[in-house]
């Protein structure tokens, strides 16, 4: 009997200094209206379908690729990435842990990945660090890292 080798699940880490207090940033991660503004990378748009902002609660969100992109590349549908994020830990103003699952029929994109957000005071602002663990093998780590970087840039513009 041979052991079926599971594809390696990647991790990424992004940090950005943002000139805003921890509590303002924490609210931006836990407010559905804020999420649709800053958590969508680049020219994508977003929609929060449901939101239960407590430990054990979750939210469901869609990210939509712009019409201007030439091909359908969504994880859920042509131009849509829909996912559910369950709140594993909520430590006000300092730490958020979410377990994220994409709504997909593609086994390479299935499974739970973990997003850990750490908010550390630094001078007149906050170092925001986002670590993703157990990224499904169908998502390239460099794409996840770039998407996170673009979202952090939008977050900075949103709160500063």
From TrEMBL:
Gene3D superfamilies named in the record: 3.30.530.20
Name of the protein in question: Activator of Hsp90 ATPase homologue 1/2-like C-terminal domain-containing protein
Residues annotated as domain Activator of Hsp90 ATPase homologue 1/2-like C-terminal: 19-160
Pfam families cross-referenced by the UniProt entry: AHSA1
InterPro entries documented for this protein: ASHA1/2-like_C, START-like_dom_sf
Classification via SUPFAM superfamilies: Bet v1-like (SSF55961)
Family: Belongs to the AHA1 family.
Domain of life, per lineage: Bacteria
Organism the protein comes from: Dictyobacter aurantiacus
